[in-house]
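Note to self: user wants both folds in one dump. Writing first protein now.
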Amino acid sequence: MRWRPDSWMRNMRRGQSLVEFALAATVLLLLLSGVLDLGRMYMAWVAIQDAAGEGALYAAMNPRCISAADGPLCASPNNAYDRTFIAIRQTPGTPLDPYRVTITITPNDPNQICFGTPITVSTTYSFTMITPLLRGMFSSDITLRAYAVQRALNNGSASCP
């Protein structure tokens, strides 16, 4: 049997630990990048949820001004659509592209709104992952949806009982 010095075994163990570290670091980096994307997605969802809430509150207080087409007093930013859009644009630190957001308000006709009518503001955002591995696992974009409902606090343009 051949005798080997202890230094040879120590070098062998160092090489083994280096390979184990490389494998573990790869897995940890993949997990970290996934957590990063999930955090960005959650932050985007919170931003569109807050914007929907702000738009619904404005529509509840001013049911005559759902969109800019509802009259000269409803010009930008004095309507629910623009208030929702501005809330999305002015959210600090969000990774949102405000032009990828779809805003829907129902009912969208002030003639249908009376005191107590529920007004729903829905926001939809097309979220893109930045991690290539997660982008390959999911479709190209993930659709985030949020909505808020408020009851009208005033009458709209409708002749209500």
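First done. Writing the second protein, which came from a different request thread.
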Amino acid sequence: LTADDEANAVIAQANARLDARGYFLDDRVEGRLGRRFEEFAREDIEYMDVSPRQIVSVAASLIPFLEHDDANRALMGANMQRQAVPLVRPEAPLVGTGMEQPAARDSGQVLSAEADGEVRHVTAEAIVVHYDEPVDGEQLHSYSLLKFLRSNQGTCINQRAIVSAGDRISAGQPLADSSSTDQGRLALGQNVLAAFMSWEGYNFEDAVIVSERLVQNHKFTSIHMSKHEVGARETKLGNEEITRDIPNVADESLAHLDAEGIVRIGAEVRPGDILVGKITPKGETELTAEEKLLRAIFGEKAREVKDTSLRVSHGVRGVVVDVRVFNRDEEDELPAGMQKLVRVTIAERRKLQVGDKMAGRHGNKGVISTILPVEDMPHLEDGTPIDVVLSPIGVPSRMNLGQILETQLGWAANQLGFRAITPVFDGASEEELQDALARAWIVREAQSARTLNGANGAASQTGGANGADDRLAEADQRSTRELEASVLGAGADPRTRAWLEEHGYDEEMIHIAFDRADRRTTGAASRIALAEWLIEHGETRAARNWSDATLVEHASRIEREQRVARPVFGKQRLVDGRSGELIDQPVTVGFIYLLKLSHMVEDKIHARSTGPYSLITQQPLGGKAQFGGQRFGEMEVWALEAYGAANILQELLTVKSDDIVGRVKAYEAIVKGEPVTDAAMPESFRVLLRELQSLGLHVEVRNQEDEAMVLEVPSRDEMPQLGVNLSGFEGEDVTSA
């Protein structure tokens, strides 16, 4: 429909209830006509939306429980998914919306089969497929895989095969995953066990506490690639030259260069290391008496060149993974005046560290404040350590409750071994969520009870190979294990069946109602779990026959008295890893999907002692890229004035800034371990005087003795010889100290 046609049509919502033949079940159906949203008689409905997801963007359609999030936070969540860094081991979300596969497929990153066929050959570089019917005139197709390419964002693109030789494949089936997909599903982050609680104030202001286990297991490790290039140009004084023969450079600095002066692939480099050796001709200068004498004795002209080599910039380290050389002689396309171009790519593996930014899909972002040893993290009563501790204060005011619902459904999905799909605006209801948590509790209770009772016969028959009990203790495999539970119907775990029979329940009653028209089993699992939980906490067996209202009333009383949480609330008792004592109140615990964003501390951290200065103001340059200093502005000066910190203020405005003579003397005093002397005249004062002179105003400066002061800048020859070079007179645009 066009927009005009749509405005005049009565359109039903996509989640209207239908019978098996596609007719509306209800007499009155929610719909819209133009801007009116109301209920219409089903006979008046002309069209029906295809899906509730069609009104949101691709990024927003990837947010589970979107309808429970405030619009501002949902917008943040959608935007921050675009900032997620591809991880070394990507993991598809436990709680998704069903759009993960279409989004990955349409991105073009996933390699898919064009028709039915058989995989003949698989290597890291290519996949060879024999199709049943010819495709584009050929039955045998070879698909090349992208290997370790640099993206425009500086991340690593790498495809890996997910099929094996001999596999039968069908049309559209994924053959290879990319950096951000898992089995053909979009995978931007990791499923981690999270607890919403305070921990020694370390999660103040949305900060995030993470376990050392995530770092050790490379859960959030990513690969970043930086590109560095240098060219040899034609200059008026002669051609620049790429060479290993660089004047005044120690042999150790040249160890990782080849004969042509270009770094070897595989070399580990750090800031300041030479990547490509390059020399540039110097201008002819008047010779000193010593040089004239040497030239007269040896009869040759010393090489008048300066070192302009490409070096690793500060903040960059890693391994050289690619070197490309382009020559004009070999007819490579190069800019005018350039004879040779060398491009070096450095790859760096970055682990999760303090200061990195992390976020969920609900606009719940934060910065890592500390990385705790596994033994210090809070843990469940069965010993499973928590991976991430998030602040509960960040939920109510932001109104993004989707993260809580995702956490609870994630817990149930992990315990029961399924992946939850909750489409946008058509997701799991509160009842369904409580039932899922209840089923997870029932299965856990059944397994622990049968194991404790010594029913090892059933355990050995069903769990010997699968190792269900062992898997409960293996935190690394929680997200991938497939624990067979009775909620999944056929092939269910006999321990759960036996437990239900023993307690007098019908196994059929806790099956998932896959068809929402079938409400028979909705709420049954919650009632069973609540009754059995009450019996465990001191109530009589009569609780199995109580009404829902009575069950809730008694559960509320026990929660208050014993400080425990009913199983359908998604809360658990946690143990402090340091003291071994129970944490005072039950805590919301579950699996949440977290992303590592591109705002990493490695790119932002910066420090400077001395460095380049501006030629005009003689003040340090600004910004990390220029290796500049921190700006101390007008308001910061007011703060120090308010504190009365006169000496710090004087230092900041003189020797740490633009007092040319004073900063050299201060540096010398620090090197020699002597007291720093008084500051001289800052350059900014001279700039002010020159500004006034340009307006035709003659300003005379007098000292305390009423003597006129000379404000001329000392020339280079008059500068004191202090053994250090901080004069700031080098270069054309900026000077370097």
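Dump finished. Worth passing along: The first helix runs from residue 3 to 7.
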